[in-house]
Amino acid sequence: MNEFQKVYFHTVGTAQSADRLVYERKDQPKWGLGASVSDDGHYLLFSVSQGTDTRNRFFYQDLQKPGSPVVELLNDFDASYNFVGNDGPVFWFLTDLRAPRGRLIAIDTRTPERPAWKELIPQSEATLTQVSVVGDRFVCDTLRDARSEVRIHRLNGAFEKPLDLPGIGSASGLGGKREDTETFFGFTSFTVPGRIYRYDFKTGKSSLWKQPKVAFQPEDYETRQVWVTSKDGVKLPMFITHKKGLKPDGKNPTLLYGYGGFNISLTPTFSVGNMVWLEMGGIYAVPNLRGGGEYGEEWHQAGTKLRKQNVFNDFIASAEWLVQQGWTSPKKLAIQGGSNGGLLVGACMTQRPDLYGACLPAVGVMDMLRFHKFTIGWAWTSDYGSSENESEFKALYAYSPYHNLKPKTAYPPTMVTTGDHDDRVVPAHSFKFAARLQEVHTGPNPVLIRIDVKAGHGAGKPVSKQIEERADQLAFLARQFDVPAPKAP
Prior knowledge:
By secondary structure, this protein is an alpha+beta fold. The protein contains 8 helices and 26 strands. The strands form 6 sheets. Strands 19-20-22-21-23-24-25-26 form an 8-stranded mixed β-sheet, sandwiched between helices.
């Protein structure tokens, strides 16, 4: 943890020792300060976060008045406030205040009292995830059932038109300057590699700008979205991707991937590793679990702290649906997830070891009673709670993967993966879990741990290491499910 937070101004090409201190908070060691400048250059903006909590504070400084104080505009820590842009002293924010799926508001800094705030774009059935100011318009990226939709609004909030996307998938980008007449956006899906499109505000049309060359035929595969009913009756969507013509005969090797936490949404994304799995004849399934951000803050909160078991119930229900509908069988079903998703796999394999034919927990949080005592773990209590709280201790202990491994139990074939330099989820989580699993496990199923040396949590991992790790995981699944290797193109 930093001893205290500071923001410096650095001039490119000068020594770091010449940096000028702009702002500091010695009294708030757990605050994270993010600094930027408004597009018009008039304001220095501070977004103040605390751990992984989605709520934040927002401060600003008027750069047109040298020596002006930092104004604590939003300091109640009651919602998320993402600065979108400004029209002079009027600031635009994407917020979930009284709108768990998001809305756009305007705050005039000359009259910042809450009764004077103005709503420009109200909450809708879709989740508003990003707003950009481009072409003198608001370009709004939304999620509807975990699929991207883009809507264009005038600066008074009035809806103008949708921006047509090339299919069911995920859009990104959509940035630019207020005076620009074009914007660029990325688009991808489970079967379409990331492509870049150009949108012209004058004509209202999109055109393909760049695309990668991949030795893969998207038209040979299909993605469908189905609905799963969880233990408490809540319905959640799940994407299923496979070769066209694949029959639900109960024999298909299936990889079920999940996360379910920290307001993170799992939307359709292309992966070369997943394409290899599909070419091997496998099914790739991704459910949108509670704890994520697909349906806004209420959906997120429904999978946190004392409600975290909802996430595991959702994942187990998704696995059961795949079996009940005949797409696969327990012996042919693998589950995978990393970080918080590693926790997901660990909890589900200890609760339902009979339901899976293989488990791939990666860099997982496995000791839920001590996670907050190492590196950045303290920041996760906004989602998990803390063992130092009595009621939260009981909830954590009830599902903590390490603490729920039972002696003389036949667990599925398992490959735990971690990095020896992981400073986010320290590798001790995986070490302890794998050691305890090997101790209590009974039967012939292999239980392995793969420890990548000179590697961390995953961000910044060299492509060569990514290939090696994914190849080992696919080889493990191929051996357990007796899946032939794909033919070379």
